[in-house]
Amino acid sequence: MKSVVSSVAAALLVGALVLLAGLTRGEEYQGRVSLLAGPAAADGAPYGEVVSLALPALVELARSPSVLAAAAPASGYSPDELAGHVSVELVPASGLARVSVRAASAAQAGATAMALGKAMIDADLLAPAGKLRTLDSRPEVITVAPDAPLVTGLALVGAVAAGLATASVRRLTPGGTGPLRRALAAAGVHRPVAVLREPDPSTPDSLAVLCRAAGHPVRVLPVTPDLTETAAKLAAGLPEEHGAGTSVVAVTTGGRNQKALTATVSVLPADAVLVAVVLA
Question: Which residues contact 259 (CB under 8 A, 6 or more apart)?
């Protein structure tokens, strides 16, 4: 039950943080105008060839110093700042270009888009074969930030990921070391004791170092009969020490119920020192 509560709490926290970060961003609007290339005259230069060659240059024209300088007063930005808010989309095989500007208000975005479109038309890039004109009399203005549906979707994804990650961590470390510490405290052991995991390849070496440091004969105790084989394997790899007293390694399973560990440690002789607990 606690694992479920922890997973739900993590999911709610991450989801709330993503929502807060996304929805408290400053508002941003995009104004867009469509420019359509058309022939300057019915009997002029080869219009199609000129447009196909020159239309891609509109991307650079929109960020040229002269066009930016003409549109900047309506935007509230300097020409250099405005360049970072401008984008141009070319519609293939149509002679159509969509010029977009992002700004902090809807009115500013719309006015800047119209001013930029007018400055590009005045540049007369396609002359003498063609000319540009605005397709609509009014700009299209949309809200681009905060994008509530996108932020909500990201919050849901983040919440689910956080919940699953929390559940996975708790599954990999069932009960953590808290139950072990409480079980040892119940047995009267209040000093720090090393907690190792039997599947870890480094565990035998770590046990050997601990036992050598203790300097007493080593005894590996399984807390339940089904752990006898595991305890024997661990004991086989430990160094032989001589002297008084005993260094004890307790072998238990993971989980919250550690009554067997408490019972085993409680009956250790007075000269026995618990040096480690191994989770099998």
Answer: 183
